[in-house]
Description:
Elements: E1 5-7, H1 11-15, E2 19-24, H2 35-49, E3 54-59, H3 64-76, E4 79-85, H4 94-97, H5 100-107, E5 110-115, H6 117-120, H7 126-136, E6 140-142, H8 151-165, E7 170-175, H9 179-187, E8 193-198, H10 206-218, E9 225-228, H11 241-254, H12 263-275, E10 284-289, H13 295-303
Parallel strand pairs: 2-10, 3-4, 3-6, 4-5, 7-8, 7-10, 8-9
Antiparallel strand pairs: 1-2
Helix pairs in contact: 2-8, 3-5, 8-9, 9-10
Active site: 63
GO molecular function, one term: D-cysteine desulfhydrase activity
Protein name: 1-aminocyclopropane-1-carboxylate deaminase
Amino acid sequence: MEELLQEINEPIADAHGVRLLLWRDDLANPDLPGNKARKLKYNLAAARQQGHHTLLTFGGAYSNHIAAVAMAGRLFGFNTIGLIRGDAPAEGHEPARLNPTLAQATADGMALHYLDRSSYRRRAEPEFLAEQLARFGPAYVLPEGGTNALALPGCAELVAEIRQQTSFDALAVAVGTGGTLAGLVTGLAETERVLGVAALKNGGFLKAEVDALTHLAAGRAFNNFSLHTDYHFGGYAKYSAELLGFIQQFQARHGVLLDPIYTGKMMAGVLDLIGKGYFARGSTVVAVHTGGLQAWAGWGERFGE
Length: 305
């Protein structure tokens, strides 16, 4: 396995006396990289234990989660159904119209079905889920983003893996649905903290989401994390020349490609916070590269290379 912990030598970190490291979870599992594999680990075990042969889940047309569930189905012998937010490709033109994410999901065996936005908003309602299971047959239902109580222990294991290689004062992670952050929160020791960098605009609701998840998984809320909502660069999956410039420069300096949806924002936020003196001098901060690099193919299709 490749070395997963990488020193990130940045002048701003040196000036503020902060040791900055990057955990390469994008390299941890070549077949199913990043935090999605961790979220799926115990869900797949539960699906198998409950006798399910099919996974049913939800996501946008460029979703890392959709890509991961389709690949997990192929690797571990599950049928997969993806309910995709948005209109279906024009009839008779579907193969040519699929974006790279959905084309790969189809290649991995996922059956795609499309929901208009009104229907998609009902994705967590029990009645709506019952309707889908009546339509498609028995299936293990995974929520959008793979975030539920069973996602947390897989993410919590990451903390112990990092701790085996280095002591640290803080972890940093990008936040979409809050599941990865919540899992890390439950795995921390008393003196450790984690900061989450929201990838979407108006991410103030995420604290309540994390609290609800940790209540489900651990029976209580935690106060060992913080959320930072000022680094969304215009919103979820929005084009930002500033962010793309940062990603390009970071890759040139460190040989690491970040993605434009999550990890680019997280790393930009961490460096900005270091510059603002957020971390005490002498701190060790480990930023987590959660993968998501499959998004670049869809990004190029939408915005150009």
